[in-house]
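Support request, please re-run this one:
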Amino acid sequence: MISLQQQLRRQWLITILLIMLPLLLLADFGVRQLVTDTVMSRLQHDADSLIAALSHNENGEWQLDDSHLGTLYQRVYSGHYFAIRDEHGTDLRSRSLWDKQAPVIPLTFGEQQKWQQLGIQGDQLAEQWLNWAKGVRVQDHDFTVWVAEDITPLKSELNRYRLAAIALLAIALVTLMLIQRYQLSRAFARLEPLKQQLRALRFGERDDLNAASGLYPQEVQPLAEEIDRLLSLLQQRVSRSRNALGNLAHEMKRPLQQLQLLAEQLDASHQIVQRDALSRLSRLVERELKRARIVGMSSPGRQLKLAEDLPPLLQILGQLYPQARINAAFDQDAVLPQDHDDLLELLGNLLDNACKYAGGEIQLSIEAYQHQDDQAGWRIQVRDQGPGIEPNQCKHLLQRGIRLDEHSAQGDGLGLAIVSDIVDSYGGELTLSHNQPHGLCVSVWLPMQQIL
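Re-run finished. Output below.
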């Protein structure tokens, strides 16, 4: 598997090459064009000087004034050449041509031409000529002026420029790669605290990633926060499970103590008491089993889709409590953003209490609701037609750690305590009120907290 750093280096190198190579080709074309234009401009200037130097001698023949000619045209094979011809046999050439012939290109007045061709070859020479020719008229006489320059030295300079440019490009690429490697190393080094925190978390040396400390890069911060949030949810779930086990152990302690006493007295007079204790123990176990059936398999981070997840819960409760009828009102497209299992446990406990202690007609409603501080959220209400509870007991039930079932053989209030823990974990509110004409109304408000 290719590491992220290697992928970034490869993509960066491809990007740089795709940008630099066209720029290099463009620069090469620009330099060649500039050299060609410069030489051509010089040739045209020399041609103008040659035309200005044309005159008749005392015999009426055309000649060139040597004072108008540079020394380059006088030195043999200097790389600078010219020739002036007409249709009457006039042929004026530069001394630099020596015994070589200039190309014959007859042009009419005003016509001009430029081209490249091989020049003088041999004698340790390998010239490449850049030529310019034009048809001119001097004193009503038409001539063809040809001038040429050997551009082999310029091509050699251009090749050296190309090699230097390629070398500089290679050095620049290597330097940029080293800089990028250093910057990537520094950037990924900022992930080292996350790696250490995850390692400590793995070995049980800590219980979160401390995302609030701001130690992580901005791109990784949401991931660390989400991991911390999920860890917090799991820790709360484990805590609730431990509380439930503690409550179960507390409820089983007295029946077990009675069984221990009865084990010492096996006469018939104690059989009724023994059966009652065993019945109480069976009910407590059955209650925990029903809770497990309501919640089902754990799936952290999953949201609750009412149209998919609520009907199976209602079906289970209908089988457990055939005497109860649950009427549910909710939006079929609604998705509650809190954890799927938490909300199933919350709804299961509220409806389980209503079915167990009230029976009959039970109203469940789930709707979007604006809180009194204008904060958007969801409101869950369960209304029953049961005996209800006294107002002073409502406050008593919502106190953390208080259980009415500690004073009742049938049990009452443990489910509400679990619901309260879930609501508190999401920053919501749980309220109990009197239902009209009689019964209990349990209302839960949860904020619009989304799971990423």
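The chain has a mean pLDDT of 80. Residues 387 and 439 are 5 Å apart (CA to CA).
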